[in-house]
Amino acid sequence: MEKDGNIGRLRSGEWVNGFAGVFGEYLAECGEKCFTLNSLRPSDREGRCAVLRSLFGSMGDNVIVNSPFHCDFGFNIHVADNFIGNFNLKVLDEAEVRIGNNVFIGPNVSLCTVIHSCDPEERNSGLMCARPIVIGDNVWIASNVVVLPGVSIGEGAVIGAGSVVTKDVEPFTLSYGNPCRCVRKITAADKVAEGLI
C-alpha cells in the first residue's frame, strides 16, 4: 500500500513534510472512498461494508459506521468486532488508530493522530508528525469527544460527552472533562438493569 517512505516515517513519530511525497494522493484516494461511503443508503449494509473493508487497514465483523464519516488515509485504521461509529465520526489517521472489540463511539467524535508545528513558518511549510491512538475493548466514547495524538484508552473505560482526552485513560474508569480526567472506577454497582439482559 505504501508508495514512499514518508508514510512509515510519519507513522513512527518523525517530523516530516506533509506537503511532500504522495500524501496528497493518499488524501484524495481516501476522500473518494469516504464520498462513496457517505453516498450509500443506510440500508445498503453490504455495500457500506465493502467500502469500509477497502478503506480500513483491517476490519472485524459487525462493524457499523454511520454517515457522514471522514478520515485522512483509512489504511491506518484497524477496527475489531462489534464496532459502532455514530454520525460525523472523524479520524485523522496519519498514525495508526487501533480500536478493540465492542467499542461504541458517539456522534461528532474526532480521533486525531496528527501534530503540526507550533511555529507558523514550519507549519506553513507542511511540517508535521503523528502519534498513534489505541482504544481498548468494551470502551464507550460519548458524543462530541476529541481524542488527541498518542492517547491510549483502557479496556472498559467510559469517556463522558464533550471531553478532550489529552492523556491515557485507565481501564474500567469513568472519565470526562476538558482536559479529560478520571472521576471514578466503574464497578458492579454501575449495572442498571441486572437480570434484564
Estimated structural class:
alpha/beta
Q: Helix content range of the residues, please?
A: 10-25%
The end-to-end distance, rounded to whole angstroms, is 43 Å
Order of helices and strands: HEHHEEEEEEEEEEHEEEEEEEEE
Structural notes for this entry:
The protein is α/β, with parallel strands linked by helices and 197 residues long. It has four helices and 20 strands. The strands form four sheets. The chain has a seven-stranded mixed beta sheet. Strands 2-5-8-13-16 form a five-stranded parallel beta sheet, covered by helices on one side. A five-stranded parallel beta sheet has the order 4-7-10-15-18. The mean pLDDT is 93.
Secondary structure layout plus pairing:
Layout: H1 5-11, E1 16-17, H2 23-39, H3 45-55, E2 58-59, E3 63-65, E4 69-71, E5 77-79, E6 83-85, E7 89-92, E8 97-99, E9 104-105, E10 110-112, E11 114-116, H4 120-124, E12 127-130, E13 133-135, E14 140-141, E15 146-147, E16 152-153, E17 158-159, E18 164-165, E19 173-176, E20 181-185
Parallel strand pairs: 2-5, 3-6, 4-7, 5-8, 6-9, 7-10, 8-13, 9-14, 10-15, 13-16, 14-17, 15-18, 17-19
Antiparallel strand pairs: 1-12, 11-12, 19-20
Helix pairs in contact: 2-3
